């Protein structure tokens, strides 16, 4: 019999990490590495499945915040460390964990990264944001003009102190972006110390620091280097362009690789837009609308006639119902529905990455007034999170 328990002490957290890592075929941390992992455990958010005394499955969440279309920020659970011991899979252990987690989540919304695309739809998560990996031919990458502000290189100690605050101040501008918790920064610091040549530069404009770039460089052949951008955070267009000028003019770099939003205008920086080549498009944000009325009210809408959407949620029935969405917002109504959608597919449309018309074309939803629904949920900028967890 599977029993789900809330974990609260360090020994249990350590077993939790081991069960999860083994499920992912990852190395189990030694005592020293464990000290880096430990701060990522937040006591009221760690669940495990047990068979008697044996831990057989794991999940947890981190307390964070999420930017929604229109710019509002809502409290958010970043769900992570989902794993079931290989000798217990396909017996409903994950299902039991997900049910319990969804009922207990203190936030109106959760996101996660999925190891496989078929796992989370049944629990009401939807693929809500994708990114593209681009590679730039740095030898031919010319950005005309000069910087508007200034870029300065900082050392690791300064970065450790400055970046969490700077990210919170300037890194939460685009829908999909999330606040980073203390344990996230501890892990990021650890990963950087692994790569000796991880470098951070900070941008300042007329109002002070307004962006940063963290990257590392690997030598691929003699004097041929690949720059991998880990973080490019910019509060405004000047900071974004200046950080790219810095990257594109760095000596001895042949290739630059970075994950950007689908509509990121990076190609237009360069005299020759063909220096930017899209290598991959991959799913990033899996979104769970835990409190549908609150999340529909949190975002803004485009201009179109109101549409009544009937939402179906098997696991959280309080969300079931009809919602009128209009340019002024969203509210529960008793009116007949124009279209009906399962909660996971509503999540897919929430950031504007997918439209209602696309889902209808694929026979995933049924209804009328699709063009109005598309226009209401349309966004000026595609989502990206940019924070891996
Ligand atoms: C993914 C994982 C957590 C699923 O756990 P589980 O206990 O086997 O899941 P459940 O038994 O509750 O499965 C629920 C349903 O999802 C399906 N399912 C689960 N994992 C699946 C997968 N990887 N691919 C396809 N279907 C899957 C099951 O077949 C089952 O379907 P059914 O209800 O129609 O029978 C587990 O296989 C695992 O730990 N995998 C390796 C680690 C990993 O990928 N973790 C996720 C990190 S994001």
Q: What would your notes on this structure say?
A:
This protein is of the alpha+beta class and 389 residues long. The strands form two sheets. A twelve-stranded mixed sheet has the order 1-2-3-4-5-12-6-11-10-9-8-7, sandwiched between helices. The model has no long low-confidence stretch (mean pLDDT 96). Strand 9 and strand 10 form a beta hairpin. It has ten helices and 17 strands. The chain starts with a strand and ends in a 12-residue tail after the last helix. The protein has three domains: 106 residues, Gcn5-related N-acetyltransferase (GNAT) (Aminopeptidase), CATH 3.40.630; 152 residues, Aminopeptidase; 90 residues, SCP2 sterol-binding domain (Nonspecific Lipid-transfer Protein, Chain A, 2-Layer Sandwich). Coenzyme A binds next to strand 4 and helix 3.
- What number is the mean pLDDT? 96
**CATH T-level topology of the largest domain:** Aminopeptidase
Portion of residues within helices: 25-40%
Give a list of the ligands.
Answer: coenzyme A
Strand content: 25-35%
The CATH H-level superfamily of the largest domain is Gcn5-related N-acetyltransferase (GNAT)
What is the top-level CATH class of the largest domain?
Alpha Beta
- Termini gap: 31 Å
Task: Label the overall shape.
Answer: globular
Number of helices, where a helix is a run of at least 4 consecutive DSSP H or I residues: 10
The helix/strand class is alpha+beta
CATH architecture of the largest domain: 3-Layer(aba) Sandwich
Number of DSSP E strands: 17
Strand neighbour order, sheet with most strands? 1-2-3-4-5-12-6-11-10-9-8-7
- Residue runs with pLDDT of under 50 for 5 or more positions: none
For the record, the count of structural domains works out to: 3
Radius of gyration: 22 Å
Return the string of H and E elements. EHHEEEHEEEHHEEEHEEHEEEEHHEH
Largest sheet: 12 strands, mixed
């Amino acid at each position: 019999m599977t029993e789900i328990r809330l974990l609260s002490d360090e020994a249990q957290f350590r077993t939790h990490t081991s069960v999860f890592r083994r499920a992912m075929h990852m190395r189990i941390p030694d005592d020293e590495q464990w000290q880096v992992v430990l701060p990522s455990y937040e006591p009221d958010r760690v669940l495990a499945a047990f068979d008697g005394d044996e831990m057989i499955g794991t999940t947890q969440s981190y307390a964070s915040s999420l930017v929604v279309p229109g710019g509002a920020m809502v409290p958010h659970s970043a769900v992570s460390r989902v794993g079931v011991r290989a000798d217990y899979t396909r017996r409903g252990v994950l299902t039991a964990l997900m049910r319990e987690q969804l009922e207990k989540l203190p936030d109106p919304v959760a996101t996660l990264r999925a190891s496989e695309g078929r796992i989370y739809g049944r629990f009401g998560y939807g693929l809500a944001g994708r990114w593209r990996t681009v590679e730039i031919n740095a030898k031919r990458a010319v950005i005309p003009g000069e910087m508007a502000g200034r870029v300065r290189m900082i050392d690791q100690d300064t970065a450790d102190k400055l970046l969490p605050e700077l990210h919170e101040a300037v890194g939460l501008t685009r829908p999909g972006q999330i606040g980073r918790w203390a344990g996230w920064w501890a892990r990021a610091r650890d990963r950087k110390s692994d790569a000796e040549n991880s470098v951070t530069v900070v941008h300042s404009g007329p109002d002070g620091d307004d962006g940063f770039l963290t990257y590392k460089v690997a030598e691929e052949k003699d004097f041929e280097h690949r720059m991998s951008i880990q973080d490019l955070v910019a509060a405004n267009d000047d900071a974004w362009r200046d950080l790219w000028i810095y990257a594109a003019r760095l000596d001895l770099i042949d290739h630059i690789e970075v994950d950007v939003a689908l509509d990121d205008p990076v190609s237009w920086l360069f005299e020759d837009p063909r220096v930017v080549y899209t290598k991959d498009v991959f799913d990033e944000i899996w979104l769970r609308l835990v409190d549908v009325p609150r999340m529909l009210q949190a975002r803004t809408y485009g201009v179109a006639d109101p549409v009544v959407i009937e939402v179906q949620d098997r696991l959280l029935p309080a969300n079931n119902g009809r919602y009128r969405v209009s340019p002024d917002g969203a509210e529960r109504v008793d009116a007949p529905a124009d279209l009906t959608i399962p909660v996971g597919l509503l999540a897919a449309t929430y950031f504007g990455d997918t439209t209602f018309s696309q889902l209808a074309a694929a026979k995933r939803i049924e209804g009328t007034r699709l063009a109005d629904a598309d226009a209401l949920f349309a966004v000026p900028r595609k989502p990206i999170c940019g924070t891996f967890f």
